Amino acid sequence: MTGLLYALASFGVFALVAGVVLAIAQKVFHVDGDPMVEKIDALLPQTQCGQCGYPGCKPYSEAVASSQAEVNHCVPGGERVMLQIADLMGVEPKELEAEAAAPMLAFVREDECIGCTLCIKACPVDAIIGAPKQYHTVIADHCTGCTLCVEPCPVDCIDMLVKPELIEHWSWPLPDTKRAQQGHERRDHHASHA
């Protein structure tokens, strides 16, 4: 019995020492994240769609912060996000790499779905629900329209539809920057002659 108590006490002391060593190591070797990466990542839409050539928004923000990628690769973010990132980085805005398209939404034709779960595994935002050998469906509020679920579907039962614009998601369109700039120039011209 004393051998068991001795073993338990030894294990307890070892766990305590290991905990103290790990706590000290965490303080000594702590590495702060790059604040620029965090700021860029906060501007991105978090669709994790991979259209920028990176596996998600965080890796793309790391590449932009380290000047390994341009500010114009985020297709879902479009011009608005590109201008915000360029302003944050203090660089010149670039032409968008791809035209912004209407927001899309995946739709599973349930009567054709075989329940293989390949689309679930491919979805980066967990917007598809279902079980093996059961119908699958898309949670519309979570779907980012990245199209990553379409390719793995062996029976081609996923369609990409234009996402209906709901009042909850509607916002005023951005003004035409050239037209707005010309308006400012006209006002400045009239003010200087007054």
Q: Would you kindly provide a written description of the structure presented here, covering whatever features stand out?
A:
By secondary structure, the chain is mainly α. Among the domains are: 35-89, Electron transport complex subunit B, putative Fe-S cluster (3-methyladenine DNA Glycosylase II, Chain A, domain 3, Orthogonal Bundle), CATH 1.10.15; 104-166, Alpha-Beta Plaits, CATH 3.30.70.20. Helix content is 41%, strand content 8%. It is built from 6 helices and 4 strands. It has helices spanning 2-28, 35-43, 57-65, 78-89, 118-122, 177-193, and strands at 104-108, 128-130, 136-138, 158-162. The radius of gyration is 26 Å and the shape is flat. The model has no long low-confidence stretch (mean pLDDT 81).
Quick rundown:
With 194 residues, the chain is mainly α. 41% of the residues lie in helices and 8% in strands.
What structural keywords apply?
single chain, 194 residues, mainly alpha, 3-methyladenine DNA Glycosylase II, Chain A, domain 3, Alpha-Beta Plaits, two-stranded antiparallel sheet, two-stranded antiparallel ribbon, 6 helices, 4 strands
